[in-house]
Specification:
The protein has 8 helices and 6 strands. It is of the alpha+beta class. It has a single domain, classed as 3-Layer(aba) Sandwich (NADH Oxidase). The protein has a 4-stranded antiparallel beta sheet with strand order 1-2-6-5. It starts with 15 loop residues before the first helix and ends in a 5-residue tail after the last helix.
Amino acid sequence: MNSQAFIPLVYQEVTEEAQLQKSRSFYEQMNNRRSVRHFDTKEVPKEVIQNIILTAGTAPSGAHKQPWTFCAVSNTELKLAIREAAEKEEYLNYTKRMSEQWLKDLEPFDTDWQKPMLTDAPWLIVVFRKAFDLVDGEKKKNYYINESIGLACGMLLSAIHHAGLVALTHTPSPMQFLVDVLQRPQNEKAFLLIPVGYPAKNCEVPKLERKTLDEISVFYE
């Protein structure tokens, strides 16, 4: 017997015209989203970051286990420690670990092992995935962890852009140093490191073209 309590769905139907307008305007807003590597040091209110994380926390997850932790870092010393550790790994990546093809593919982005955005950005959001939960010392399994985390991170990035901020999805590898620096428990592993804030004055980004609708979709009608 299902013991889960159910409540009425909160839903307000809109006209087809409104659907078209909403879907188009949101697409246009998100189409301006870009990964930014040059940040202003201007502060962002903590409450804004809290609301962004709350939005990410509304993402669907396997069996509603919500297998994520979002660590928001504004402390100067912690950001510096994260930057130093990230640059150590990235230096090894760029000089030893990455293949020639990988380095060639990165050339258009004008990026290297140095990561000043990790100390310039007012906030770093570190997303951790939880393979299992610990309840009174007992392991409780989580399901579809990567899928759940991916959905939450997508909503996180959308919320950041919607709030008028910019971000970068940074994946220094390996990322164990984030667990160590932030003293996270054994059931958490770093998934993404995301600087969040305002773009630097006169910020420029690579000139890119996104794939067209025909290239990314197939309709069966």
